[in-house]
Amino acid sequence: MKKFVLAAIALIMCLNLCSCERLLRKAKAYVTGIEDEAPPADFLESRENDVFSYDVYKDHIELTGYLGESTELIIPSEIDGKPVTVIGSLFLFEKAKVTSVEIPSSVTALAESAFYYADALTSVVIPDTVRSIGVRAFSWCNALESVSIGSGIDEIPDYCFNHCVSLAEFKIPENVGKVGVRAFSYCSKLVDVIVTAGVGSVGERAFANCAALQYVEFRNAEVQLADNVFEGSDGVTLISPFVSSAKDYCAEHGMRWSQSRFIEAIIPGSLAESSSNEESEQ
Length: 282
Prior knowledge:
Largest sheet: 7 strands, mixed
Number of helices: 3
Number of strands: 20
Structural class: alpha/beta
Oligomer: single chain
Strand content: 15-25%
């Protein structure tokens, strides 16, 4: 009889744990917009210690949550003898105490919404080993002031820094080829952005509703810009070479353009540009 009771209790506990895991996956799916999926074939089990919750795979660890109290988070390069390679979805969701994160060189991926709503996070350095950053990875990090992106990243994904209202300046690394949809939208303190020569396209509303935005410099003369990249960012001037798609974009959309921050901006095709050209010819 005792054995039967113990077995029943064990079964109930297992069912409860499974239910909790399913509920957690569904909650993450609701926030991230990613459908709930069964774990991959190489998934072994979920565990936690005093500091992290994490998923164990055959050859690596994925961090799924932070359980510690330190405001300066140092992520270990390995747990249980396996390398930590992925920082998972909602890893720091609503962890209001964490102000900085040190990411080790073992990490190769930041999942979608990895640092979503990490409300106190002020700075982060992404090492060169990280090859992918997921959608909304830093969205709504309201205190984020400083971001350093390593050489392994080739795209700033959709909504990546959406609503990072403390971010004032940003230089997109040379290795990045694409800036996604609403990547920097609602960054209300963003003043100056350098879009390096490697960037070939900028998605819809990438810099929308950036109230303080003054300059976006495009170093690729042939960069492709979506129709409403700067929607609601009325004070911006685009900086680019004289013959460039960015200048043409300004002419089409009635926006200010200049070759330099130190030269007065004009709207290409306007009377101001005609006067400027005439003066330069005299």
